[in-house]
Amino acid sequence: MLFIFLYCPQGRTIKVNYGMKRSVEEICSKINKGKAVVMTAGEVCQLIREGENIGLEDVDVVTTATRAIMSGTYAVMSFPIEASRQFTRAKKIFLNGVPAFVGPCPNEKLGILDLMVFGTSHSNLQPDYGAGHLFRDMVQQKEIEVSVITDDNDSFTSAITLNDIPFARLFGTRHCFMNYSAFVNCSSKEVNTIFHAKSFSPDLSEATVSGCGEINPLKNDPLLETIGMGTPVLINGSEGFVIGNGTRSSATRPNLSGFADMHGMDPQLMGGFITSAGPECIVSWAVAIPVISQDVLDAIKTPDSRISLPVMDVDTRKPIGEANYGDVWQDVDLEVTFNPSACNYCPICEAVNKCPMDAIYRNNGKIILDRQLCFNCGLCSTICPSGVFIARLGIIKTYMKCYEEEIYREVPIVLRQSDKKRALKMAEELKRKIIEGQFKIK
Ligand code: SF4
Ligand code: SF4
What we know:
This protein has 442 residues and is an alpha+beta fold. The protein has helices spanning 24-32, 41-49, 131-139, 294-300, 326-329, 350-354, 379-383, 420-435, and strands at residues 3-7, 13-17, 38-40, 61-69, 72-80, 90-95, 98-102, 112-118, 144-150, 155-160, 167-175, 182-184, 207-209, 232-235, 238-245, 256-261, 271-275, 278-290, 308-313, 318-324, 337-338, 360-363, 366-369, 389-390, 395-401, 406-416.
């Protein structure tokens, strides 16, 4: 073990223990004895911003979380179905109009449906309803219409709730990225994209962002020293497991695959997000990181301002600059302030039309905000001209090379595709569960 004593300008002595390593088992034993120090990644980074030093002896487990659009999502379900008469096999299945893939089990003449639903699938009945909406409706125990076309060219519909589905699991093929990006539009035309809830305005006039910065799970363990196959996690609040690396995961751009039972999920952590290229699927992860080494602790202590945020041109999908997460999450509002009395009753309410969560609506002329549905994206604050919705969303400040020249730009953020407010709550909740023995980190 190697101790180094550093003398800081304030006259304090800091002891840095560079040789120290400990096993996950040792940390689990401390948790079981009620002696472990569990902190959220946000708490650690706040202490670092306040000038504190945190050593390996000061913290045992750090909780992290993210809530974001995660396209690489699918659900696997198996359930018996009420049919007017016996059928051989299902050929096509739709859940609330969202197409499912039948199988892989044929279930010949058993009256049982096995199916998969891709998170990016869209309803053939409503253009703004996708699998993300379907999964949330299911978890809310809403009745779902099941339409079946059989091998015998018969067709029938039935209604189910999640309680009627004994096997329903949500999987991620590439979730929980370590690296996200900010997007701007360098071109002179509007672009419809999954990276904006409305058409992306041209000429670098606005930016959209993803990622929860310092509390992102893989930012806190970028070398995957503690996260791997079998690691317990919370997906949409339900206990699940990491399966391994996700698709296209690499050493510099890791992501995870995993799964959890839909029956234990919290609808407020999931849902559908309407982009200008169609509905997308929202998923949340909370991950505990046992602080086993100085390398892990150093990653945890890295605050937003030192985490790189590549800036991409949404038209060409090429990197044109590099900002940091301090621009996104420091000195901003994590949710909008709602002042309905400021409403001017515009003939067409663009805030209602453009809200990606359908969280704003009118009731007897009055404007209503559904906080349960709201994703805290902030877009309404940039659309409403009368200050009904107010939020500071930050500014991307960096050099950007759109054309030949690299020029310093300040581009206002108009949409956040990650919900840091709920991610912080999830990290707090996971911390509570670990301390109270309701969640085992191994
Ligand atoms: S845009 Fe703003 S002021 Fe106009 S109707 Fe909507 S909420 Fe009211
Ligand atoms: S912040 Fe505004 S636009 Fe975004 S989800 Fe909430 S209500 Fe809708």
